[in-house]
Amino acid sequence: MGCAIINLLLIIFIYEASADTQTATEPEVVRTSQDFHYCCDYKQARGNYAANSPYQTNLNTLLSTLTSNTDIDYGFYNFTNGENPDKVYAIGLCRGDINPDECRNCLKLSRANLTELCPVQKDAIGWYEDDKCMLRYSDYKIFNKVEDGQTYYAGSEEIATDLDQFTKDLKNLMNTLKGKAASGDSRLKYDVGSIRGPDNKLIYGLVQCTPDLSGSECDDCLGRSIQVIPTDCCESRTGGKVVRPSCNLRFRTSGPFNEAFVEGCSNAKIISFKCHLLISVVVVIVVPVVVVVAAVVLIYIYIYPKKDPIPEKEEIEIDNSESLQFSINDIRNATDDFSDYNKIGEGGFGAVYKGRLSNGQEIAIKRLSGKTSQGDREFENEVRLLSKLQHRNLVRLLGFCVEGKERLLVYEFVINKSLDYFIFDQTKRAQLDWEKRYKIITGIARGILYLHQDSRLRIIHRDLKPSNILLDEEMNPKLSDFGLARLFDVDQTLGHTNRPFGTSGYMAPEYVNGKFSEKSDVFSFGVLVLEVISGQKNSGIWNGEKKEDLLSIAWRNWREGTAANIVDATLINGSQNEIVRCIHIGLLCVQENVAARPTMAFVVTVFNSHSQTLPVPLEPAYYDDSAQLPEFNSGATIEYTTRSTSGEEGQ
C-alpha cells in the first residue's frame, strides 16, 4: 500500500512538472492591457456617483460582502445591496479551473483595482490575473441576461501550420464544449477538453458562462463567440480568447487547462488530459486496495462466527421514564374513550384527539394507526427526539403510552390548530395580517435553526409543511410531527435513505432521490414561506387552462419584476419591502442546487438585520406532482427537472 502511494505521488509530481514546463513555454499573448477593464461614465448615460454618497456606501458594503463570502465554493457570486435609486448589483465569476481560495483572492484584487480605475462610475467591469476572475457591478439589473458589450479578444503570436484543418478541429472542439457547458446547472456552466489537431498536436479548450443564464442563453452566447474566432479574434493563431461579461472561451496548443471534474474517457476524439492520470491512479491504487479488502472479507468470513439474522420487526424500545408514562385508562378518561366529539384531526399516521387530564390540563393525543411497522418506528423516533428538545417554537411532548396495540403520544394542547387550517382557507387567512404572518415565518425559522444547530442534538425534520406547524393562542408557530426526523452526528452533512418518506410539494429534489441534509429542510422552509405570503398551496394552481406550481409562478414574477403579483390580496397594508424580502428569501431556499441554498443560520440573521445583503436567487427546481405521495410515501415518485428562462427548454 505504501508503494502505491509513493507511485501516485511520483505520477502527480511528473505531471505537475510537465504542466509547469508547458506553461512556461506558452507563446506570448497579445493583450490590450495587463488587466482589461471598462468604466461607463456619464456619456453613456449610466451616470457617476459622488464621494460618500449612499451609492458608494452600498457599493463598498456589497463588494466587501462578495469578496469575504466563504459559503460559496463554486466561483459564482451575484448579490445586491440597497434600494433604488442607490441599489447596486454585482457579479463575481471565477474560471471553472480556479479553486475557491484562489478565486476569493483574485476577486479581492479585482475589487481594489476596479474601484481605483473606475473611481466614480456606477457601471464597471474588469478581468484580472490572466482572466482568472471577472468582477462587474452596476446600478441596473445585470442578472439573468446575456450581455454582449465590453467584449475583448486576444490571440497568441504562433501561427497554425495547416490553417484549414486547425480551424475545423478547433470548431469541433468548441462546439462540443459549448453543449456541455450549456447543460450545466445553476452553480456552474463550464467545460474543458482537447482534440487532436494538425501534426498530431492537441488543441486545448475552455468555455464558460455565468450560471444564471439559461441553457439556451449560454449556448447562444458561446456560439457567437466561436463565430468570431477566425475573424475578429484570432485568425490563423494557435491560441486565443474571446471574453464577454456573460461568457468566455479560450484555446491553446501549449498545454491543458486545469479540470474541475473528470467526466470520463470514452470519447476517442474529444479527450481529457486527466483521463490518463485517472487510469494510472486506478491501476496503482485501486487494484491493491481491492485485493486488501477482499482478503479482509475472506478472513472475516472464516474467522468470525455467523450471527443470527436481525428480526424483521424490532420491539419498541423507549426509556420508560415515569415522568413520561401515561396509562391507557388516563388517556381514555381524558378523551372520553376517543370519542368523535374530541377528534380534532386525522392523517396518514392516525387520529389526533383533544383531551383533559384529571388536573384540568388540556392535552392533544396522537393515536397512531398501528397498521404498519413504519408507525412503530415513527412513534419511537418521535418520543426519543422530542423528549430531549425544549424550544418555544417546538411543540412540547408531555408523554406517551404503549399498551397492547395502542401507540399514543401526548402533547401540550395548541389552541389554534395548524397553519394550513388558516392559510389555505379563503376566509380564515384574512385573520392573518402581515405582522402575524411575519411572526409565523420567523418563528418557524428559529425552530428549524434550533434543530439544526442550537439544540444538544442535530436533527433534520424531513416533513416540514403547514399541517405540521401548530399555532398557539398568540399565533406563535410550533413545529410538530417528528416521526420522520433524523438525528445527525456533529460532523455529518448528508444522510441517505432507500425509501424517502414525505409530502408532495415540500420534498427537496435530492431527497426524492434518497439524499437528505439540513438543506432539505431549508427547501421545505422556502416552500412554506411562499405559501404563507401567497395563501396558495405549492401544487395545483390553475392559470387559465394550465396547472402550475407556486415555485414556478413566484420565479416567473420575480424575474419580471412583478413579485407583488403572488402576494395574498389581504396583505395590502403589510410592509411591501418586508414582503418582497421574504419572497427573496423563499426563492433562495428552493434553489435546485443544494449548495446555493442558504443555511438556516443565515436566514435567521437576515430576519434579524434588514441591512444584510442577499444573493440573487437562481431558478428553483420544478416538480411534476402527477404521482401524488401519500402521507408516508409508499413508493410513488415525484420527478424534478430544471426550467429554462422561457420554461420550454431544460438546462
Output the keywords.
27 strands; phosphoprotein; kinase; alpha+beta; Phosphorylase Kinase, domain 1; disordered N terminus; Killer Toxin P4, Chain A; 651 residues; ATP-binding; elongated; Ser/Thr_kinase_AS; 4 domains
Describe the structure.
This protein is of the alpha+beta class and 651 residues long. It folds into 4 domains: 105 residues, Killer Toxin P4, Chain A (2-Layer Sandwich); 103 residues, Killer Toxin P4, Chain A (2-Layer Sandwich), CATH 3.30.430; 85 residues, Phosphorylase Kinase, domain 1; 224 residues, Orthogonal Bundle (Transferase(Phosphotransferase), domain 1). 35% of the residues lie in helices and 19% in strands. The strands form 8 sheets. It has a 6-stranded antiparallel sheet with strand order 1-4-5-3-2-25. The protein is elongated. The two termini are 43 Å apart. The N terminus and C terminus are likely disordered. It comes from Glycine max. Its main location: membrane. One of its GO terms (molecular function) is protein serine/threonine kinase activity.
Please specify the SSE layout and strand pairing.
Layout: H1 2-24, E1 37-40, H2 54-68, E2 76-81, E3 88-94, H3 100-117, E4 123-128, E5 133-138, E6 152-155, H4 163-182, E7 189-196, E8 202-209, H5 215-227, H6 229-233, E9 240-243, E10 247-252, E11 270-271, H7 273-303, H8 328-335, E12 343-347, E13 350-356, E14 362-368, H9 373-386, E15 397-403, E16 406-412, H10 419-423, H11 434-454, E17 458-460, E18 469-471, E19 477-479, E20 486-488, E21 495-496, H12 509-512, E22 515-516, H13 518-534, E23 541-543, E24 546-548, H14 550-559, H15 576-589, H16 600-608, E25 614-615, E26 621-624, E27 639-642
Antiparallel strand pairs: 1-4, 2-3, 2-25, 3-5, 4-5, 6-9, 7-8, 7-11, 8-10, 9-10, 12-13, 13-14, 14-16, 15-16, 17-20, 18-19, 21-22, 23-24, 26-27
